[in-house]
Design a protein that fits this description.
The chain contains ten helices and 21 strands. The chain is an alpha+beta fold. The strands form six sheets. Strands 1, 2, 5, 6, 7, 8 and 21 form a seven-stranded mixed beta sheet that branches. Strands 11-12-13-14-10-15 form a six-stranded antiparallel beta sheet, with helices on one face. It is globular. Bound molecules: flavin-adenine dinucleotide (FAD). Flavin-adenine dinucleotide (FAD) binds at residues 10-16, 33-36, 41-43, 45-46, 48, 51-52, 116-117, 149-152, 154, 175, 177, 262, 318-320, 393-394, 407-409, 412.
Length: 427
């Protein structure tokens, strides 16, 4: 392994892997430092799947080529599919870990797992080297350029960069995702059809000989056909009221009897701060309590789940927002809602401003026109005051509300792809 790289990326998550692959394709020597034992970050570790749809009304894809490349690789083994709403981003998160290993090998990206970026040495507004820690040992690594793709802004923070966190200190709700298996999907699909004829809320399709579906229910209003089942479970004391805040499930390609839960929304009496390890530790323990209650609910009230069991609880907590680094440009909610375009666009999207609040009736979902899109400029990825440091992913420079639109997987991947190309041109 080298000790001097063209580019070192802190964090091999969603944006980090895209940056690395793109830079390596442009002939940079790239090293990724990753805290987990696998690549993919929230996509694999937090079990966040599928990708949100990023298409115009006319079907034009807004995402970068990297999204297509990843999904094409996964489709070869049936580990990704295009859903009935034309979303190409349904994937199997476990197999994505392997696909990303293969792609790193193919493009010659070096990676150190189980290693944490723990310090940085700067001189004249430039990072000279970074310190990583593995098994109680410190190691120093040099590069010409660095990218913070830690999802938390760890490297930028170690460099003393300015950042904001939350909306007046209040972050979006956290979620600990999980997978249940041994679900009889045919019976569950028939049950959904019998209670819910709105196929937008509960779409059901047969794809590659497997049943695929998703459905949801929140405590905010009465449109959800599953709501009476949640209310009954609260009366029966199987669930607590807070367990009903947000429930969403998706089937998984190549896991024919499994469903992935975008739930539970972690209950807390105060807003949880992703930069406080007491809060995140509470969230993990509380999340695992809520998961057991949700599973008991599914088994008792949802036909098809009688013999289901918890197969996996995400090793990573689902954190929607954390540090937002000060960049050369701060993307605003106005830019999003007015579909602003930029000279140096790194990504295009029409995902809404989507805030998951801890409090009832305080969620935000501000949609933009589905025949237009906003852009994310490269300037929001340049960390102010540090000449050779860039940010990628959900931590880039944005207001709280703008971040709530840009944070989805396709945008993080597209940003990383553009950033890798940009840094290669600088060299
Ligand atoms: C509960 C939840 C549900 C979501 N649902 C969807 C959805 O359905 N569809 C969608 O498209 N998007 C969804 N999102 C949004 C999306 O998943 C994330 O915003 C996106 O994946 C973040 O990518 P990232 O690269 O910024 O961070 P991550 O993918 O989290 O990557 C950060 C990486 O950095 C590593 N790391 C952290 N600190 C260090 C360090 N000091 N040293 C070394 N490595 C470090 C981490 O281990 C991790 O691998 C959801 C998010 C959450 C939390």
């Amino acid at each position: 392994m080298k000790t001097n790289y063209d580019l070192i990326i802190a964090g091999g998550g969603t944006a980090g892997v895209a940056t690395a692959i793109s830079a390596a394709k442009s002939n940079l020597n790239v090293l990724v430092i990753e805290k987990n034992t696998f690549l993919g970050g929230s996509m694999t570790g937090a079990l966040v799947m599928p990708m949100m749809k990023n298409l115009l009304k006319n079907g034009k894809n807004l995402s970068g080529e990297i999204v297509n490349e990843l999904m094409s690789e996964l489709r070869k083994t049936g580990d990704a599919l295009t859903y009935s709403d034309k979303n190409t981003g349904w994937f199997n998160s476990e197999m994505l870990k392997c696909t990303l290993d293969d792609m790193f090998e193919k493009y010659g990206v070096d990676v150190l797992f189980d290693s944490v970026v723990t310090d940085a040495k700067l001189s004249e507004n430039k990072i000279q080297n970074i310190q990583i820690t593995y098994a109680g040992q410190k190691k120093y690594l040099k590069a010409k350029y660095f990218v913070d793709a830690t999802g938390n802004g760890d490297l930028a923070s170690l460099c003393g960069a300015n950042f904001k966190n939350g909306n007046d200190g209040v972050n979006q709700a956290m979620t600990l995702r999980f997978i249940a298996t041994n679900v009889e999907l045919k019976r569950f699909a028939d049950f959904l059809k019998s209670i819910d004829d709105d196929r937008e809320i509960s779409p059901i399709s047969e794809i590659n000989g497997e049943i695929h579906l998703s459905t949801a229910c929140t405590w905010d209003n009465d449109i959800w056909k599953l709501k009476p089942y949640f209310e009954k479970a609260v009366q029966d004391r199987v669930l607590k009221e807070e367990d009903c805040a947000y429930f969403q499930i998706f089937t998984i390609p190549n896991q024919p009897s499994s469903v992935a839960f975008n739930a539970p929304r972690i209950f807390a009496k105060k807003s949880l701060n992703p930069l406080n390890s007491e809060d995140t530790s509470y969230a993990l323990i509380q999340g695992r309590k809520q998961i057991r209650r949700l599973m008991a609910f599914c088994k008792k009230y949802l036909p098809g789940f009688e013999n289901a069991y918890i197969a996996q609880i995400a090793p990573m907590l689902g954190i929607r927002d954390s540090r937002r680094l000060e960049g050369e440009y701060e993307l605003t909610e106005r830019d999003i809602l007015e579909c602003k375009k930029f000279e140096n666009a790194a990504a295009k999207s029409n995902y809404p401003i989507d805030v998951h609040s801890l409090k009832k009736n305080e969620n935000v979902l501000n949609k933009i026109s589905d025949d237009d899109y906003f852009e994310i400029p490269l300037e929001a990825m340049k960390v102010k005051g540090i000449d050779n440091l860039f940010a990628a992913g959900k931590i880039i420079s944005a207001t709280f509300l703008a971040q709530a639109a840009l944070r989805i997987i396709p945008n993080c991947l597209s940003m990383g792809e553009s950033l890798g190309k940009y840094i290669a041109k600088l060299k």
